[in-house]
C-alpha cells in the first residue's frame, strides 16, 4: 500500500509540473525552481526531483549538472517534425477506425462528447482546460484505433506533441490566424464518420501545418 501511495503522489506531482509547462507557467528555457514547487505542493525535494527525472526522460526538461533543470526549448524544425509525425500517426489511426467499422455515430460518441465540451471554451482565456481537452481528444482517437504498437509510439512522444501543439497554437494566434477550437476537432470526427479518408488527410495536414 505504501508503494501505491508513493506512486500516486509521484504521478500527481509529475502531472502538476507537466501542466505548468504546457500552460506556460514555466516558460521554455526557464529554470525550474524546486523551492517554489516543493513549498506549493508540500512535498520533499526527493519526490520533486524524481518527477523532474520523469519529464526529462519524456523530453520536456533538460538538466545541466552545474546550473539546474530547465524547460526544454524546441526549434522550429523540431516543432514541424513533431507535428508532422503526430499527423501521420493520427491519420493512420483514423483509417484503421474506418477499416474496422468503428466510424458509426455510436462508436464515435466519445469523440463527439469531447468536442461538445470544447464548445464555449476560449483557448486563450482557459489554457489549462483547452490543453486537457486537446490531450483527451487525441489520446481517445489513438485508443479507438486499437493498435497497441502505434499507441505506444504515440504515447512515448505525447508530451513533446503537446508542447508542439501549444506552440503552434500560440503562433497562429500571434499571426491573427486562430481557429475555432471545437469546430476544428468536429471536422476530424465528421470526416471519420463519413469514411472520407481524403478529407481526413486534408484536415490533418491543415492542423499540423
From TrEMBL:
Domain HTH gntR-type: 7-74
Record-linked Pfam families: FCD, GntR
Protein origin, superkingdom: Bacteria
GO MF annotation terms: DNA binding; DNA-binding transcription factor activity
Record-linked InterPro entries: GntR_C (IPR011711), TF_FadR/GntR_C (IPR008920), Tscrpt_reg_HTH_GntR (IPR000524), WH-like_DNA-bd_sf (IPR036388), WH_DNA-bd_sf (IPR036390)
CDD domains the UniProt entry points to: WHTH_GntR
Keywords annotated in UniProt: DNA-binding, Transcription, Transcription regulation
Protein name, entry field: GntR family transcriptional regulator
Amino acid at each position: 500500500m505504501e508503494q501505491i501511495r508513493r506512486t500516486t503522489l509521484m504521478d500527481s506531482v509529475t502531472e502538476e509540473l507537466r501542466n505548468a509547462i504546457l500552460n506556460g507557467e514555466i516558460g521554455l528555457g526557464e529554470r525550474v525552481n524546486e523551492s517554489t514547487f516543493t513549498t506549493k505542493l508540500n512535498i520533499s525535494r526527493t519526490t520533486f526531483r524524481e518527477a523532474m527525472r520523469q519529464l526529462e526522460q519524456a523530453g520536456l526538461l533538460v538538466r545541466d549538472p552545474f546550473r539546474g533543470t530547465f524547460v526544454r526549448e524546441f526549434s522550429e524544425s523540431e516543432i514541424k517534425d513533431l507535428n508532422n509525425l503526430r499527423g501521420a500517426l493520427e491519420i493512420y489511426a483514423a483509417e484503421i477506425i474506418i477499416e474496422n467499422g468503428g466510424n458509426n455515430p455510436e462508436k464515435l460518441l466519445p469523440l463527439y462528447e469531447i468536442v461538445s465540451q470544447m464548445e464555449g471554451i476560449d483557448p486563450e482565456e482557459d489554457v489549462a482546460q483547452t490543453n486537457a481537452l486537446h490531450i483527451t481528444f487525441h489520446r481517445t482517437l489513438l485508443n479507438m484505433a486499437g493498435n497497441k504498437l502505434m499507441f505506444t509510439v504515440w504515447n512515448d512522444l505525447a508530451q513533446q506533441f503537446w508542447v508542439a501543439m501549444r506552440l503552434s497554437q500560440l503562433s497562429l494566434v500571434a499571426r491573427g490566424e486562430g481557429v475555432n477550437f471545437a469546430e476544428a476537432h468536429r471536422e476530424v470526427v465528421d470526416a471519420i464518420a463519413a469514411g472520407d479518408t481524403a478529407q481526413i488527410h486534408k484536415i490533418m495536414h491543415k492542423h499540423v501545418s
